[in-house]
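[agent] plan:
  1. take the single chain provided in the ticket
  2. run structure prediction with default settings
  3. attach structure tokens to the ticket
  4. add a short note for the reviewer (M.T.)
[agent] executing step 1
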Amino acid sequence: MSTPAYKKLTRSISFVAVLNRDLKLIFTSNMVGAFGDGLFAYLLPYYMKETLKASPVEIGILYALVSLAAASTLLIAGTLADKYDRKKIMIAGWIAWVPAPLIFAFAENWIQMLPGMILWGVWLGGPTGTAYIVTAADKNKLTLTFTVISASWSLGYIFSPALGGYMAGTVGMRPVFYASLILYALAGIILVFISSQHAPTSGQEALRREPSTKLLKTGNLAMISVFFAIVMFTLMMFRPLVPQFLADAHHFGDIEIGVLGSIAFLGSAVLGVFLGKIGDKWRKEYALATSMILCSLSLAVMLLTGNFYVLAVAFLLAGSSYLGWSLMNAIIGPLAPEHIRARWISIPQTIGMFASVLAPYVGGILYNISPTYPFIIAIFACCIIAAVACARIFEK
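[agent] step 2 finished; step 3 output follows
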């Protein structure tokens, strides 16, 4: 069957159809890099504990360094992306990750992991990629573009943890790290073929030279930054605790927890298309609100039942929690002045990232009081975020 209606339906089913050539290459790069990341990321804490004999405190220090490195590099990335070719900054982001798995492979103790964890935290692609996408995308399909590109990460993570675990069990962790290194490099090589993109050289030069603290006074950037921080704090307060809760409250093992994690990533990819269409047809804020409501619903189900099959559906909905970053970027990206877009975007991203550094500690304190507390608070917080998003607070 090859009727025009059939062809149109086929195009609509292909969720990457919304992307142009450059954005398809970014999608592919992210998926390849995420697959490489997923090979070892799920196993890394276990590797640190069992092979390197790191204590929980030492493991916490290593992961805190990753988050701090990410938060510290966002503003730098935004400044560089407005001054130089955004394509090159994104490639540099992958180059920074390439040595990390090699360092992990040869580390003999947790101290030797430090430089690798810092490099793993470097995040030059955050504001740079957001600015590139906003400029390159079809403005009428911007939300869908962001959620589809976000889905590329989820697709990369669906199967790679299982493959990484299998490889680690059969040939050891070093080949896993080597494979990740190769995939990181391949992700960067793919970006060589996208078009160059520069911020306009003309425009408000005085504003371009303003320090980031003064930029917070322009438009509603301060309010957006606070809201971004609240969203990220809420999501990161409960997300790292989900596997522990499944083990403690429902007595699930590694296999069940891993399967539910894969289902959540699958849900992120599927729901990304759905939420993207909501954002483009109505408002981007409505897509964020829907994401938060679905997240709230999934957490409520997790608290109420330990039935694996019911939880599988709930975790499919929980995939919406992985879309918070991309949906916020879809909202703030078009608000940024083009000539300082990357740096403007990097401000709420940085504030949001610092909030996400603190959130797991708060969640851990609440969990020690009662395992249900972080999730109950997150349920109500997600509902409040959804209500605030629908209030159109971002309109100029």
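[agent] step 4 note for reviewer: The two ends are 48 Å apart (CA to CA).
[agent] ticket updated
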